Amino acid sequence: MKISRKEFIRELKEEELLRENVRKAIRIVVQRRHKDEQSKLMEENRLRSLVRKMIIKEVAVADTDPTPHQSTGINVLEDLLKKIIPVLETDFKILTTSEEQRLSFRAHVINAAKNTLAPVKTTIHAGDKNETEEIQEQDVEVKIGDAARPEDDDAFIDIRSDKEKSGDEEPELSPEEEFGQGVDDHDLTGRNMAYSSYKKIETNILDAYELLSADEDRELFYDYLITNLKLYFDKFEDELAGQLEEPSTPEYEEAKDELDSEEMPEEEEDLAGEEEEEEEVEFEL
């Protein structure tokens, strides 16, 4: 069977077109499979991300809601610290002029906390009413025959005027000065800042302490309050020191000194050049 040249060329073109269509079909199938695999991978990654976020959220909730301590006093103190420490930190870190200001702030706040709780502790640990009354009766015992007779200290009659007497009275202290009593020789700026800061938290401390009735809880609350105040002030000082002073090394300081000694300021160079010119002029004359 003979085939003409035209028919042969036509059949050849049809075969090439068929092969090209087959290749296109294969490419489309491969691309679709690849796209399906990418979609699956993206979906898996999305699910992993969601699971990871859920795990992180659960861990965060667990961290913010820790198991309570066995002591009620410590639990009450922990709740108190969450309220007062941010206030103290903010005010403490304002004092950046000198370390003496921060030491004064620290000393006055700790002293004030002790003074705030001291009257409450004394009241709680006082004896019962019967013992107190008995002691008072013994101390106030007075003989009837001596009732109308003044004591030697009361026999003196002061003839000075009221104005002269007022000169002997001690000057009235400011609230800041009264607050700082018992903590001498400390920076006044730190004292004033401590006074302002402590006014914000004093009621919180009293309210928390008065919630407790058991002696053990009160003692733990008091001891760990003072301890934690000191530890937090140490922490604030370390954080502030890192911000105020850049760490250095002996090698850096040595290299810096060498560079400083090698480099001459421009003003000194200009002066040196002017002196040389003046010397040349004088020599020519």
Describe what you observe in this structure.
With 285 residues, the protein is an all-alpha fold. Among the domains are: 12-56; 72-128 and 174-244, no CATH class. Helices cover 75% and strands 0% of the residues. The protein has ten helices and no strands. The chain has helices spanning 5-64, 72-92, 99-124, 129-139, 162-166, 175-179, 188-210, 215-244, 250-262, 266-284. Helix 2 packs antiparallel against helix 7 (188-210), helix 3 (99-124) packs parallel to helix 7 and helix 3 packs antiparallel against helix 8 (215-244). The radius of gyration is 43 Å and the shape is elongated. The chain starts with a helix and ends with a helix. The model is unreliable at 281-285 (pLDDT under 50).
Brief overview:
By secondary structure, the protein is mainly α. Among the domains are: 12-56; 72-128 and 174-244, no CATH class.
Helicity level, as a percent range? over 70%
The count of β-strands is 0
Strand content: under 5%
Distance between the termini: 124 Å
Shape assignment: elongated
Structural class: mainly alpha
Number of helices: 10
Question: What's the pLDDT, averaged over the residues?
Answer: 77
Task: Jot down its keywords.
mainly alpha, elongated
Set out the fold topology:
Elements: H1 5-64, H2 72-92, H3 99-124, H4 129-139, H5 162-166, H6 175-179, H7 188-210, H8 215-244, H9 250-262, H10 266-284
Helix pairs in contact: 2-7, 2-8, 3-7, 3-8
